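Researcher: I need the complex structure. Ligand is pyridoxal-5'-phosphate. Inputs:
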Amino acid sequence: MTDINAYDFLLQAASQYYISALLRYIIYKNTSDWNIDLDVAYLHYTANETIGGVEFQSVPEVENLTLVADMSSNILSRPVDVSQFGVIYAGAQKNLGPAGITIVIVREDLIGHAHPFTPSILNYKLQADNGSMLNTPPAYNWYLLGLVLEWIKEQGGISAIEARNSRKADKLYAAIDAPTFYSNPVDPSVRLRMNVPFLLAKTELEKDFLAQAKWHGLVNLEGHRSVGTACQPL
Ligand SMILES: Cc1ncc(COP(=O)(O)O)c(C=O)c1O
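Model: Output:
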């Protein structure tokens, strides 16, 4: 089984990318231009890159390839056709509940091909055969995740959540894009909607901005530790 060398893959397609100046993360504009080696077991992509502020707005159209997606930071934020994927996985800690539990959705025919050295906790056949309770599960996290799912249903389901997310993100981006105080260099067509990173046009104001934001009850706006200057309100 060969895995795609993601780094080479990114470099190969380098002429068709957007770069988020915030973090130098890359998202592809046009899947038809991707140069993909079809002799791979699967194609993995990250649907939403929180720190750089970029999100795939639709599922990449790649024929004859099994798609595997990390949806940790945008799962349940918009409807997704699960049948387009071989595997979807998502850590709960962004959209589903507390850290410590991960959701994995695996297409049935992909189950049962684990390498013999695969640890049992990552062996989807063993997990499926045991109702995801091969080991004692993190029961409290599981319970809380269930409450979140119930809450989403009560809100009107994923479409209602999507509409709400879009409204919030549109408002926030409109404020950020207004001249002169904030900035967000990410191309609007690939901006994410779950977590909006932004910069101050005058970076020297950052300390004052954060202090005043805190005074107004807006805390933890500092950007991810790997970005430094970006701020990320939810
Ligand atoms: C898509 C995605 N996967 C994985 C992670 C890693 O999550 P954590 O830092 O909670 O382990 C992140 C973090 O932002 C993410 O956005």
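Model: Summary of the prediction. The chain has five helices and ten strands.
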